[in-house]
């Protein structure tokens, strides 16, 4: 409900990378941070892309997610030969052959590594947003729709980092029409 959507692209040229990785959502914050730091110290090539809440509101979460993926790929120092995409859809506009892999972070080390990088970077970003708007407690819930976040929305209304195209945010702002903030 708040903050950017963040994607990462990771190329692991050295198959000896041994730090345990998994779906980032299945790991503790400490384990994610440890794996993230190990990836940064390794010979992994990493690209990170993001779309802001304003972009999400303008083009929709799905298109923004795909745009953040393309941005992550563009940040890589090397153009990959082939792309593995976590999920069941290959974003439009890729100029490289790709394969969508459902539950990819459980099947591919590079997808799991990218999942960790994206999650840690987004969590860091939400920590910075928390410093600007501490009343929303972004550091605790990272912008997701927890009971505490919904209560903060009811009490303070949405702020500049919220995604107005998401129904709970619109409702807290008294906006009934989702197309007020979303357009193609």
Describe this structure in a few short sentences.
The protein has 184 residues and is an alpha+beta fold. It has a single domain, classed as Nucleotidyltransferase, domain 5 (2-Layer Sandwich), CATH 3.30.420. The chain is 43% helix and 12% strand.
In words, what does this structure look like?
The structure is a single chain. The protein is an alpha+beta fold and 184 residues long. It has a single domain, classed as Nucleotidyltransferase, domain 5, CATH 3.30.420. The protein has helices spanning 29-41, 53-59, 61-74, 109-132, 138-141, 147-156, 167-173; strands at residues 5-11, 45-51, 83-86, 98-101. α1 packs across α4 (109-132) and α2 (53-59) crosses α3. The two termini are 20 Å apart.
Write out the CATH superfamily name.
Ribonuclease H-like superfamily/Ribonuclease H
Model regions low in confidence, pLDDT < 50 over at least 5 residues: none
Strand content: 5-15%
- H-E string: EHEHHEEHHHH
CATH architect. name: 2-Layer Sandwich
Main beta sheet strand tally, sense and closure: 2 strands, antiparallel
What's the Cα radius of gyration?
Answer: 17 Å
